[in-house]
Amino acid sequence: MGLPLNSRMEFQAVYGNIPVDLVILDCDGVIFDSNSLKTQAYATCLRHMNVPEEKIAEYVALHTRDASVAREIKFGYFFKNIYPVEDVERAIQEAVKGYVKECDLVYDSLEPLPEALELARICSHAHVVSGTAEAELQIVFQNHKIDQLFRSIRGTPTKKQTHITDIISTSGIEASRVLFIGDGLTDFKAAQACGIHFCFLSQMTDWADFATVLNGQQHVTVCATWSDLLH
Fold first, then answer.
1. Within a 10 A sphere around the Cβ of 7, how many other Cβ atoms?
2. What pTM was computed for the model?
3. What are the tens digits of pLDDT across the range 40-84?
4. Burial class of residue 156 in the structure, from the number of CB atoms within 10 Å of its CB (0-12 exposed, 13-18 middle, 19+ buried)
5. Nearest to 79 by CA among 67, 93, 65, 69
């Protein structure tokens, strides 16, 4: 039997004490302070493709509306609707390749946040569900030697909702005892769809209108920092 999260740490929850047996964490903006650097990586890879600066600015605006949307989807929309090209699939592939190269440099320059690792060590059922490509994500965690802290490390192309549903089903833990910590709109929607508690961490988010969307939502806690979440 798992212990309530608040028996091991103070958890600020608008709906009272939350008994948590399973924790799911997003990666960017939760485990790594990588959001702004990955936004710059998008701009850099598009510059290498000779995309005009005004169109790059439009892509950045698209990206920051919900950074947790998979890059292939955002690039696809961009090359079809914002900066139309003749061969959309080829453009997507070139952009993804360039972006992955830039992201390798981003993750090499960062260290995972100790608070996220502390929570993973405390909770015996800790998982990662991210909008980053799963194979790349697993390499990042292996390189930082933190992969063993998590029961699974999951990413795209599988959707977050599908991953979460599978994790809950496989674990045998009730959805009411599962907590998802994220920083994006897609994280919130996935938590809602799966009927689990959602903790929005605003510390590193680039989701500008989160306060408007999350205001009044049930089973949602907003924490300004990891310190607010853990203490």
1. 11
2. 0.85
3. 999 999 999 999 999 999 999 998 887 767 788 999 999 999 999
4. buried
5. 93
